[in-house]
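Side project, low priority. Logging it here so it doesn't get lost.
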Amino acid sequence: MHPKYRADIDGLRAVAVASVVIFHAFPTLVPGGFIGVDIFFVISGFLITTIILQSHAAGDFSYRDFYARRIRRIFPALMLVLAATLAFGWYVLLSREFAELGKQVVGGASFVANFVFWGEAGYFDTASEAKPLLHLWSLGIEEQFYIFWPLLLGIAWRRRWPIVRVLWALAAVSFLVNVLTIHPFRTAAFYSPVSRFWELMAGAILAGMRLAPATTASKPWRSHVQSVLGVGLIALGLVAIRSDKAFPGWWALLPVFGAASCIAAGPAGVLNKYILSNRAMVWLGLISYPLYLWHWPLLAFARIVEGAEPPLGVRAAMVVASVALAWLTYRYVERFVRERSGAGTLRVLWQSGVVVIMAGLVVLAGAPARNNSELLQKVVDAESDRGYYDGLRLGDLDGFPVRRFGDGARKVLLIGDSHVMQYAPRAAELARSSPDRMATADFATFFACPPIPGVFAQGIPDCGEGREKVLQLALDPKFDAVVIGGCWNCYFTGNLPVTYEFRADGAAYPLNNGGPGISRSLDSLETVLKGLAGSGKKVYLLLDNPTGPQFAPKSLIEGSRLGKPTVTDVRTGKMPPDQASLDAQLRRIAASSGVEIIDASSHLCQNGQCLRAMPDNTPVYADDQHLRAAYTRHFANYLDPIFLGTDKEATPR
């Protein structure tokens, strides 16, 4: 049994999908546009729960019919988009990218995409903009919800439990998990169904309340207030919420309550009637599902083909194309299936899902992409060469876990972020080739966390307490040498994707975009170096390697992905002037602190040109920041004096 059609709910779908599409294509226009997904969650929870409860009330609910309807609703557009994405991916992607797409297809078709992307999330993960099926995480959460939801409602109905109270209790538990995990486990809070189910349950609660017998007649003004309040909360979320906020968390209450209020207002609510029920809004709402499916692969492939953010015109063209494809999908695929409700249609649909999953598995297993030359394969291999701690031995430093290489009497402590971690393969190589001379080297590293007291990053809870403890342990006399390093270019010259700030005396000074926190942070670094040097040990300041898009492996690719790309013979890139200036400033700090410099750039660069590929065109970098593990293992000999305790330094390059 289906609920009575409401045009205003299709209009609300239009708000949701337009918000998401505009945010993905033009993020500065609607900074909180990603909350459209949360609006979808509420709508879905309301409609599905209404269908289930009305069917139970009429005595004709069938689990088989319920899941058959879900297949007819979800599979036609989804399998079409997955197949098209896989086909186009074969044409434009490199082998490793194509294999990753295969995994995404399997996850999307089996409705576990949220777990796939949750498992991939990490510091060295592929940029989200380059994952053509990333948006399917939300579909995974919805379908996981519908695995247990009809069963739970069926039990509650048969046992005559108070439905609305049960829903409130379950939603409260899910919301509590959300707010308790959003800071310490931000990725889990985003992708986990447990921390997201409350949003669907908000719509479910509304469905339960509306099906309960009314004790008093609803006053018209109440619907108008709910309509205005709902639209207002959604609008506030669109402009106030940012992608760097701890989301979902408490912020998700804005779109969830906003969507619930719009639905509760009913079709007679003033904004529901005159805006959400507008013909254009309803039309966009009708194609909202295929539009959501099509828009992200088009934008992601445009970025992959361009090698950077596509120009405004290209992004606009992708939006127009996604709308056109969505309408065609709705008109000639979804409606075609809807008009054919027989068992044969259902069989074809679930079989198409099996075929798509099998195709994804074949790609994941190593089916080659079109662009599969030996030189392009070297670029692909470089991007996955990040096993910096492979072969490590876990050690314990007064209760703090470290990665340990070597067993020598001389003890060295290296403190920093992933730009210190990247040199662990050199330590492992020396421990293998020169075990009698190799020191005991402890790597104490933190992702995206500079070894500077007072500097903190939003959304990185490990940056703080652990760092302060390690810096204190570095004063221990048992260490003969201490190395301090980090992605100085990231913190002091780059446009950071994370918000960093220097905190002191209750005030916060931003580092981003040349903020006032930079000078304070450099002063704090100098204080650390002076304190370590004053403890009587050998102290080194490790300068950063050159960074920038010109050093990324993919920068070596020439030609369009739409044609026949090749690998360039230009094996160097220009040293950014601001990074050279920063190196000079850090040298002055080192000199005033009485510590020695380890200058990676002097080994990688000559006359302002820095190495990005070896003579055989093998990339030196794993991405635009990090040297690949194979390179540091065999060529980062400028660290040998530290690990081997010699004074003679290796010749650059």
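Brief comment: The first strand starts at residue 393 and ends at 397.
Revisit when time allows.
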